[in-house]
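## retry 2 of 3
previous attempt timed out at serialization; input unchanged, resubmitting
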Amino acid sequence: MSLYANPDLMNGLVKTWPEHSTKKLDMGKSCIRFKTIDRIPHALLGELASKMSVEEWTDVYERQIKKA
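## retry succeeded, writing output
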Protein backbone atom coordinates (compact mmCIF):
# COMPACT_ATOMS: atom_id res chain seq x y z
CA MET A 1 0.00 0.00 0.00
CA SER A 2 2.23 2.75 -1.29
CA LEU A 3 -0.27 5.43 -0.32
CA TYR A 4 1.00 5.46 3.25
CA ALA A 5 4.57 5.86 2.05
CA ASN A 6 3.78 8.84 -0.17
CA PRO A 7 1.71 11.68 1.32
CA ASP A 8 1.00 13.10 -2.15
CA LEU A 9 -0.60 9.80 -3.22
CA MET A 10 -2.61 9.61 0.00
CA ASN A 11 -3.85 13.18 -0.37
CA GLY A 12 -4.70 12.48 -4.01
CA LEU A 13 -6.83 9.51 -3.00
CA VAL A 14 -8.67 11.42 -0.29
CA LYS A 15 -9.24 14.41 -2.59
CA THR A 16 -10.48 12.45 -5.61
CA TRP A 17 -12.43 9.73 -3.78
CA PRO A 18 -15.76 11.64 -3.87
CA GLU A 19 -15.49 11.89 -7.67
CA HIS A 20 -15.44 8.10 -7.90
CA SER A 21 -17.69 6.93 -5.09
CA THR A 22 -20.76 8.12 -3.23
CA LYS A 23 -19.67 6.14 -0.17
CA LYS A 24 -17.32 7.41 2.53
CA LEU A 25 -13.69 6.32 2.18
CA ASP A 26 -13.17 3.45 4.64
CA MET A 27 -9.46 2.85 5.23
CA GLY A 28 -7.53 0.87 7.78
CA LYS A 29 -3.90 -0.04 8.09
CA SER A 30 -2.74 -0.66 4.53
CA CYS A 31 -6.23 -1.39 3.24
CA ILE A 32 -9.30 0.17 1.71
CA ARG A 33 -12.53 -1.57 2.71
CA PHE A 34 -15.41 -2.10 0.29
CA LYS A 35 -18.84 -3.35 1.36
CA THR A 36 -19.77 -4.66 -2.09
CA ILE A 37 -17.68 -5.50 -5.13
CA ASP A 38 -19.74 -3.31 -7.46
CA ARG A 39 -18.70 -0.18 -5.54
CA ILE A 40 -14.96 -0.56 -6.14
CA PRO A 41 -13.64 2.44 -8.13
CA HIS A 42 -11.35 0.39 -10.37
CA ALA A 43 -10.24 3.34 -12.50
CA LEU A 44 -9.13 5.35 -9.47
CA LEU A 45 -7.29 2.43 -7.89
CA GLY A 46 -5.60 1.60 -11.18
CA GLU A 47 -4.50 5.20 -11.60
CA LEU A 48 -3.06 5.33 -8.09
CA ALA A 49 -1.31 1.98 -8.48
CA SER A 50 0.40 3.20 -11.63
CA LYS A 51 1.87 6.24 -9.88
CA MET A 52 4.55 4.24 -8.04
CA SER A 53 6.65 1.61 -9.75
CA VAL A 54 7.66 -1.64 -8.11
CA GLU A 55 11.24 -0.35 -7.95
CA GLU A 56 10.16 2.87 -6.21
CA TRP A 57 8.08 0.93 -3.68
CA THR A 58 10.96 -1.47 -3.03
CA ASP A 59 13.31 1.46 -2.40
CA VAL A 60 10.86 3.05 0.04
CA TYR A 61 10.32 -0.26 1.83
CA GLU A 62 14.04 -1.03 2.11
CA ARG A 63 14.80 2.45 3.46
CA GLN A 64 12.18 1.93 6.17
CA ILE A 65 13.60 -1.49 7.09
CA LYS A 66 17.10 -0.05 7.41
CA LYS A 67 15.81 2.62 9.83
CA ALA A 68 14.31 -0.04 12.10
